[in-house]
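Priority: medium. Attachment 1 of 2:
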């Protein structure tokens, strides 16, 4: 039975790219859920499948890729919808802030024209109504002089302002779910803090569920309530944010946390050995074993299942196998 406060749920989500010589799996049986008003962090290095997971949720996987499994938005399977029905939902009930606003905004249309299109498409607003709503949306994300910015082009705005415009567009129709793909990348730290504070404020005011895609654990600690760790297209650990930082289980999660710089740290910054393999070269067995300092023979040969600690904390690592399907400290 579906929990009443769960607004988005991915079940065994896969993304495969079919080429003449072989099929490459980018996302492998990823499952997670997000409750109304919750912020879920999706974390991992570049190449771990974070952005492809978000594109699969939105129904935007580029060809020749194909998403399979289930993506349930309040019980409706988005992957099973015809394109016309999905377009009515996308940008309306579920929205996305893309990674680079300069390439996501159309450079030949004004900010106002692009915002108005959202209201005219999804709310059948008149031109006058759409203009009024667009200016109010700019005001909602704390853009100064919204009437002036309405008539400006993306290149006339700073990076922080363009990101605010993207947030305004994504939230224009009060979506149930907002997917934010690296929303603070390439912004200076002051603007980053402002954008994160804005997202927290809008979540509290509108009750929007947020799926935050990032590699920045500092950002995760500030805004997320739960965290999913991705590696080689798989979920390898999931837990409340306090447990991820206070008692991480998977060696990869521990490596990510040890790699964080800290004031007063004297020892050399830790680096996880090796690098994320390409999708054509994902390892057999535990996908992290080539880089893991605690890997054993079983890790190389057999993929671990999830071991459940309880309280929403689960991990894929043979270190926690009690031999009875339980989880023990490793």
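Attachment 2 of 2:
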């Amino acid at each position: 039975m579906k929990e009443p406060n769960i607004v988005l749920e991915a079940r065994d989500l896969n993304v495969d790219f079919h080429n003449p010589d072989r099929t490459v799996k980018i996302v492998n049986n990823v499952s997670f859920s997000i409750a109304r008003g919750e912020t879920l962090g999706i974390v991992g290095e570049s190449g771990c499948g974070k952005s492809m997971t978000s594109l699969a949720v939105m129904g935007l996987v580029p060809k020749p890729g194909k998403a399979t499994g289930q993506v349930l938005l309040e019980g409706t399977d988005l992957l099973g919808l015809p394109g016309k029905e999905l377009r009515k939902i996308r940008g309306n009930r579920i929205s996305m802030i893309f990674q680079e606003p300069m390439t996501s905004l159309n450079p030949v249309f004004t900010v106002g024209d692009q915002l108005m299109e959202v209201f005219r498409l999804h709310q059948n607003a008149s031109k006058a109504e759409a203009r009024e709503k667009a200016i109010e949306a700019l005001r909602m994300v704390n853009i100064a002089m919204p009437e002036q910015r309405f008539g400006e082009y993306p290149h006339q705005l700073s990076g922080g302002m363009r990101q605010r415009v993207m947030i305004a567009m994504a939230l224009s129709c009060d979506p149930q779910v907002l997917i934010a793909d690296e929303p603070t990348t390439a912004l200076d730290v002051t603007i980053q803090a402002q954008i994160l504070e804005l997202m927290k404020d809008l979540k509290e005011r509108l009750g929007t569920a947020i799926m935050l895609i990032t590699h920045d654990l500092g950002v995760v600690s500030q805004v997320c309530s739960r965290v999913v760790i991705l590696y080689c297209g798989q979920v390898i650990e999931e837990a409340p944010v306090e447990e991820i930082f206070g008692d991480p289980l998977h060696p990869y999660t521990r490596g990510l946390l040890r790699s964080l710089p800290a004031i007063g740290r004297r020892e050399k910054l830790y680096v996880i050995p090796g690098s994320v393999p390409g999708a054509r070269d994902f390892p057999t067995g535990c996908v992290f074993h080539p880089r893991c300092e605690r890997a054993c023979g079983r890790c190389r040969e057999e993929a671990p299942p999830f071991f459940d600690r309880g309280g929403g904390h689960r991990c894929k690592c043979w270190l926690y196998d009690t031999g009875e399907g339980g989880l023990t400290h490793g």
